[in-house]
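To whoever is covering the structure queue this week,

Two jobs came back overnight. Logging them here so there's a record in the thread.

Job A:
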Amino acid sequence: MFSDWSHCIRPNPPASCSGVSVADLLGVGVGQFVVCGSEGPNRVFTWVNGALADRTPRALADDGRATVAATAADVDGDGLEELYVLNADTFTGPTRHADRLFHRSADGRWHDLFADPTNAAARNATSGRSVAAVDRRGSGRYGFFVARSGQPMRFIERTAEGHLADLAPALGMDACTVGRSLWVGPLASDRPDLFCGNERGPNFLYRNTSCGTFLEIASAVHLTDAAEHARGVVGLDADGDGHFDLAIANWDGPNRLMIRQPDGTFHDRATAAMAYPGPVRTLIAADFDNDGYEELFYHCLGEPNRLFRREVDGTRPLEWVMGDVGDAAEPDGYGTGAAVADIDGDGRLELLLAHGERAPQPLSLFKVESGDNHWLRVRPLTRFGAPARGAVVRLRAGGRTLVRVIDGGSGYLCQMEPVAHFGLGAVATVDEVRVTWPDGATATVSGPRVRRTFEVAYPR
């Protein structure tokens, strides 16, 4: 399925890398790949003259720290995304270097907000693996939920007084476990819920009460999976009913495809091939070939990567089957993070894979030739003009309704581009696109033209 485009990455020496995120950190109006250096500098790659070029701002390189994950979101409502950088040089417990929260000023310079004395108490200096952006009140200002290892979870948010504070204790979200992965989206409510995949203990599902608070309900909806060790996780409409389901990759344990039932509980519907255990790190759902159906890509450590797709009979999707991953199999890859984005603006998604947990390896870039398949990309914005992470986009075309969520991170180490990408196959006419923001506000665009990317402003 995938073709190797790694020759486009310049430079691309062997390196020990971890998470991959996508955000516009250069202020050029399109996203860049942010690659976390677990043993070396962080790097920011943008598409320039047919190549994926390193254009890392000096402050963000932050060499000498062990960065495992990074997540972008607008914390202060200035229309620009901050970048939360999670540093972890140990498996659990205290770390040598605390986390960063980089803020970009109007002149393009970056400053670590945690370096301000008023924010020092909120700074995390404990090992973790994932961080996710959550607009819990629907205000357009985001907080960062940090999944930590062996220490209480944290929810870092900007207060009315303008400083950063950990609100997890007040919200009842400060459980102590070995946190591994996070996903933000409407799993149990119509607002951004938060799923936490954990190791050596049950998973959590925090249901949004629509009042800025959460209730933990994983046991009630059958998502605890307490005997397994969660890694990659992603939400998608896996059965075509218009609701988000949850795919979970467990480390050397059975993988899950948790399908939402009419009563709100989740049941595992993974096929035997999908459930087969392996050393999975990152899990991605995306329509790589623009045929109108999402694929599931499993990024592995020391074993071939896997791809699953839907068999289709006419317009009726059938069982998930293993697909040909092509050049992206990488049987000798020491896989860590991965992310997708239409980095070159041609309407097809690029897949960037990071490696290096056991030994340094170069990055890999892959792409699928989607032929004449149509596509449409939707970028919702907050009331401040920043990416509306956590917003839900529904597209109606060809007798089907497709649904995507704007990614807040971090399925495991990573964060996808803040764009809803829809492959359409042979369908050339879209009936409507409907965006729902985290506060429940909606906007509808009727009959948008296909084969383009367009923004949808928050309805004022």
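Job B:
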Amino acid sequence: MAGRRLRLAPNQQPRPVYVVWELTLKCDLHCTHCGSRAGHARPDELGVDEALDVVKQLAEMGAREVVLIGGEAYLYDGFLDVVRALDDEGITAVMTTGGRGVTADLAQQMKDAGLSRVSVSIDGMRERHDRMRALNGSFDAALAALRHCREAGLIVGANTNINRLNHQDLEPLFETFLEEGVVTWQVQLTTPLGRAADRTEMTLQPYDLLGIVPRLAALKRKALERDMIMLPGNNLGYFGPEETLLRSPRPDREKDHWQGCQAGRFVMGIESDGAVKGCPSLQTRHYVGGNLRDQKLKPIWDETPELRFSRDRGLDELWGFCATCPFKEPCRGGCSFTAQAILGRRGNNPYCHYRARHFEKQGQRERLIPKAAAPGEPFDNGTFDIVIEALDAPEPQPDLAAADLVQITRKPTNGRRKRNRS
């Protein structure tokens, strides 16, 4: 889930403080890693009047911030009406966008309507970003969107998905964002969800965190010196030596750490047809608790197990390595949608820095091997097997050209390995 770190009082009762709302699945890009497989609008998306009623329900539930996404939120006919309604209710309105259609005029209209911040998705320097976004010129359009929003008086941020195709661009991206006046930068792992599940060659291996996390920590130190807030997404990190540095937005908050999945506790996702989930990235097939066309938001939030799972679950839900981890109490298996996307159920997440370091100390590493393909639906996933192999096993070279193809490829790998039933 892309979003800001929540600041909540101790023992606060669960409520949808932070909401990510997909206004439409219509999109002017066709990104190779899109979790929702955006492009065309869903068949039965909420109308403007229905959306405005949702705003009232969010206000009644105590929502503090709503991130409008798509597809592209600005392609929804009532986009600015929703922004105004959120602002009128005292809810901070934010947008995450690919930026292709954000002109100077639209940026000013968004500011005038009450939008507070805009985060532009930029996933590499020009060549790699354009390849991931499947459109030449999309990098330049994203930078232009940043400039238009900044000039309109909006707070500008950026968010980046990290994978094997683009991770080498992290350092030059940081410098670019400084030059462009980016205030916040969120980095997260590209999870094999949606279209990314069809392109497993671009997926990082768990042991790639051994190199990437220290690089991100070094960039975080530089960001603190330059007044940029840089934070990991909810599927990156977990209890390595850089954990508190990465999680803390400011130098005076050096005790922050991952506190478990917040889906259905203080986070909620709404799909454009009214489906409600505990987190916008959770798999639709497994985690929709109800639809706003059929019932009000409050009973969906209060009563459905699909939204209550992170409130009600205990440590007995953990399995495999996560069930044995010394950090299992605060962590609860890391990011739920990421674990589901890899192994088909939550409670055991191989994308963990502590876990990768644990295997490294034993001279081993975990490798993900594609097992079953995704069915081709929004927010869907395939599954993987985990194998444990020697840390110095020959590195299979991913065919990153295949990342542009809709397929799962199986490549033979070498080195000592055994099945990991975790």
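Note for Job B: The radius of gyration is 20 Å.

Please reply-all if you pick these up so we don't duplicate work.
Q.
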